[in-house]
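Deliverable D5.2: sample structural annotation.
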Amino acid sequence: SLIGRQVVNTGSLLSENGLVMMLAGESAYISETDSGKVYVEVDGQALEDLKNANNPNPEEGTAIKNEGEVRASRIIFGAGDMFSQAFTNTGEVVASAEVGGGEIQVATGSKVQNDGLLSANNGGKINIQGTDVTTTGTVEAKGGGKITFESIGDTIISGLIDASNNPGNQGEGQNNSNPPLPLGEGRGEGSSGSED
């Protein structure tokens, strides 16, 4: 895990069948539940609630920047709302697991920008939360996976979104942004196995 006020990866973070976390904030609390799920708080806000954060005076800069390679079965990027840009990815983030695919979670209280690769194939899950979400890169969960975007502002998709399926597997793409922007319409292009 990398934890700090600002976190930058320009190298390789590798944890086969393990967990990698990059967390940016004044404070972070990490624990594991009885069911094996990891619970994270950054700046006193649970990851599930960070999308509702609204800081009127964020600092300039990026809280979490990935320019390198991250590979693990579960990958979590979490940042509060103290920076104008919470998460930027220009590298490769690949989550894979032997059973059920890998999982990538980006949970922030500010803007998210993906210009690289976010991949959780073979039934994996990708969830991206931010005040505004922009992806010009590739987000893929091929082989029956699920991709979800959640924002309280704009979701702009101009890269490839791929939740296509192999025979017998159902892929799924979901956009819970406000206002909703259907995948593959409006401000971007994308493809998915199915959309909710």
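Annotation notes: The CA atoms of residues 12 and 121 lie 20 Å apart. The longest strand covers residues 12-24.
The annotation will be released with the project's public dataset once the embargo ends.
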